[in-house]
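Running log. JK asked me to keep both predictions on one page so they can be read side by side. First protein, sequence followed by its tokens:
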Amino acid sequence: MGLPQSRPLFFLAFLTCAGLIGGALFFQHGLGLEPCPLCIVQRIIVITIGVICLLASIHNPGNVGYRIYAGFTALIAGTGIGVASRQVWLQSLPPDQVPECAPPLDVLVDMLPWQELLRVLFTGTGDCAEVQWTFLGLSIPGWSLVSFIGFFCFAMIELFRQRPKRMFS
């Protein structure tokens, strides 16, 4: 008895991404927790994984196609692991080593050239070191890291698993 077919698994991964974004929007609008630059990057990464998984589910390609979708998912999830790890690391710093806080993102967009804006988005600021919420000892970025590791493992399993040959693929 092998793994289920890839199509429903990719759709389940899409639904997971939709749930994560729904949770992030609840934290922002329901609980009033404003996202920092690294949080926004993590949201973009989750949305990207969700779009890739939805496309894989709708497209329902053959074996090579699923491997391509899985490869892209692994690449994006790996990026998410790096970004979430950076934020977890920032949150673990002693207060005297935390970088300075930055102005809100809309001000940064107006002030900075795009190269500098990308650097700020991917390296984070003092805002990213603030722990606003925890569950079972993990902050929001900690749970994001767990999610990205899960997506990465899913993608690697999909990338390397043996699939039965389809008659018309």
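And the second, directly underneath as requested:
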Amino acid sequence: MPELQTERLRLTPIGPHLADELYRLHLDSGIARWYGGWTRADAEARAAEIGRSWQRDGVGKWLAHHRESGELIGRGGLSYQDVDGVRRLEIGWAVREAHWGSGYATEIGLAGLARARELGAAVVVAFTEVHNVRSRAVMERLGFAYCHDFPHRGEPFALYAISLDT
């Protein structure tokens, strides 16, 4: 997959070659708060898994860098997830805490939705911990509607969905 550019971001498909940057991203306290502490081995395994997803499914996560400064802003994109017993196209994002409130998660989300439309997806889901009000607000800004809460990794998560065929 080629890199994408948004108004402010350069989105680079994650693969094994970006494991070090993915690890550095997950050291950010704002991201670690939601995703736990990652080891370098965790980042290497996850980067390899995402690279396989790009090859197998044509979707995956991007690392997001500021187009002008090159600063690492976050990550986000699409993956397939089993949700309510159905394989669904899921969108997500994580932005370094210093950049919260700057619209980067929304920008990453819009790029992911554009990719989902290119793939002909009818519905995309998003989910987060029920108390993650910032992420839920991004989902709502992107046009997602709340569906219901569900258990995920032993915690209550809020599920949202958006129809792309309207």
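Observation for JK regarding the second prediction: The mean pLDDT is 94.
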